[in-house]
UniProtKB/TrEMBL annotation:
The chain crosses the membrane at residues 53-74, 86-116, 128-151. This is Membrane protein. Pfam families: DUF2975. Keywords: Membrane, Transmembrane, Transmembrane helix. It comes from Tersicoccus solisilvae. InterPro entries: DUF2975.
Amino acid sequence: MFTLRRVVVPLRALLALLFLGLLVGQTLSFPGMFAHQARENPLAAGWQWPLTLAAVFGFLCAEVVVVCTWRLLGLVRDGRIFSARAFVWVDVIVGAMVTAWLVLAAIGGSLSWFIYVTPQLRDPGVPMMLFGMTVVGAVLVLTMVVMRALLRQATVLRTELDAVI
């Protein structure tokens, strides 16, 4: 368990830094960037608020994942990861990731269509990036679903083993 503690403490410190960075991005960086882009490019000004709301919401979903991961680390540290309490946190993580992915897919698809039909913005880089982000998001969500299933199997096996012993 000593080795586990040596991993949990630095990981929690990094999670705290990540949470702080997410808060900065959510409250300062992205809203300011979208406001600046709206001033510089009036053609895209209509996207300022939808993109700002989507970014803030995406950051909120990431913050939920960080908090749930923090709580799961506490269960790991205490040796209680194979319990019903862990499923609550994992389910919240999956829910936050699915919600963020749906918003990304909706905004990304709409923005890609806007870029495609606007003659001044024919660069395929942004739609390709949005499509790539959507695919990566789907991979992360499905990986989390698989990890949840593995946790369920391990919990069942642990419960059976405890009953045998």
